[in-house]
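Researcher: Let's try something more involved. This one mixes different molecule types, so please make sure each is placed in the same coordinate frame as the others.
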Amino acid sequence: MKRRSHIKTGMLAATAMAVAISTAHGADTLTIAGLGGKLQDDLTATLFAPAAEKAGVELRGQSHDGLAGVRVQVQSGSPGWDVAHLGAEDCAIGAGEGLFEPIDYQVVDADGIAESARGENWVGTNTYSVVLAWRTDKYGDNPPKDWKDFWDVEAFPGRRALSVYPQEMMEIALLGDGVAREDVYPLDTERSLAALEKIKPHIGVWWSSGAQSAQLIKDGEVDMEAIWGSRVAGVIADGAPVAFTYQDGVIGFGCVAVLKGSKNVEAAQKLIANIVSPEIQARIPTMMSYYGPANRKAFEVKEFPADVIAQSNASPENAGRQIVMQPNWWAEHNQDVREDYKNLMIE
Amino acid sequence: MTMAIDLKGGAAPATLNERLLKRHDRRERTALSLLTAPGALLILVVLILPIGWLFWLSFFDASGEPTLANYARMLRPVYVKTFISTFQVAGLVTAACVLLGYPVAYLLSQLSERTAGILMIFVILPFWTSVLVRTYAWLVILQRTGLINTWLTGAGIIEEPMPLVHNLLGTVIGMVHVMLPFLILPLYASMRAIDPVLMRAAANCGATPAQAFRQVFLPLSLPGLAAGIGLVFVLCLGFFVTPALLGGGRVAMWAMQIADNIAVYGNWGAASALGVVLLAVTALILVVLRRIFKVDTFGGAR
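Model: All components are placed in one shared frame. Result:
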């Protein structure tokens, strides 16, 4: 019965399945829920499955639609998931709402993980970047270099796109308005909204999903935009005349947390300890291009080929040109900022 | 049995019959309404109770304290703007559906059943495709590098691509496509039910075709039109996918605001308050519509 139900789930990559079956005898069964799609497949193959094998637990995959789904699971009193993978700002918000068990940092070695990439109840698992991408057929030899150029509509005419969600966009607006990278936090929301107000007439589309942002630049519906590095990489691989820069990019985190009420807290801690261990984190640069490890010690584990280092958003060289998103700031200000941002967008 | 009583005659056969008939009638009605019980029970359990529960929740905050904050929040500009634009979009789409749908339904009602049946396939066809697919198809047609714009710029008719999508216009076009069958179907049914003899009678009485249409056909088709308008308008109020994809972030609908509130606020009350307000205003509009058309907006004359 147990066996049948996890075969039915069909969410895991083949590797995870092999792991689950090979360790099925007497092991704890953990259910991990992520945002689904290719990202979850990649995370499972790169992090979750090998971590489960090392921790000696059986793993099942499920998908959720964000924090709201996690909330429902916890409120039910007996969550069907043990661990959730989310965006770090959602982890921080959920932690504030008391949805998660504390992370046992005796078990989880977070030495190489930045303070801003973990909390009492959650820990970062991977990084992603929001970057500036543009059409090479539009800008040729003189492309925009950073967000200041994105805001310079005279030197760089053309239609632009930003996300409908304020996370990362508020940071980008400050950089575009001339704020230095180290001064972005705490966000000056008034200045940021004023900068967005300035660029608004030139925003052709506010995109609401990663797939949409990729389609916009691929079809030339917009000439430059803020987009996830992994998404624009796919567009470039498809042969579209598009390029991007890590300059002034915003590094965000994916994270894991243990749902309050989980019956496998101990096994979950072991799983998480392995997910964030430098050895398993070191799989990210080669297996998930344009994503990076949350544990910076991953780069000390082994030598990476030069092209992998050049691509990874979290390699020391690329990370140095970007800012790091602070999930805790967003956990505190999300409600108000989100409404102000939407108000600006729909006017 | 009634016959037997009748034959026996007597002083009060009429009252006796009447009583029996009445009892029979009542029993039959009870039996029939019992038949609806499973359906009614289902509606009670899956619709009335949850909605009642949401009403109740809307008066509490995340910690379970009674509060009106969920309603007070709706006075903020973003909610007011979204509310207004929801009804604007629904109104625009409904109006466009009436303008496009009435002639189609009229044409179909005047054709032979067979021809109308074949043409009806084209009206219903969109139902067989997912809303998401249709919405993306409109994107391919309407965007700046889409079919219409590349053709018009290629032919030298326009220099700059027209902004046909990622705005209100694109949203309305996409929604009209989805909604049109909901207007045409009830309208067509009510037009079919109009006796063609009435039009001939009007002609006999000296009415021109235009007069006959205006004074006889149009009023008789109004119940169907009202049903279609009610249906389209109410469905539009809950739209989510089409405006999210074709509105380019600028068109905010109430349903999107509800989804946003569920994601952002840690309590169901915040979102359910929005649902309560939408339900109340929609009910109000249907009542007003009913007054205007003097008919039941959900089908049939009063």
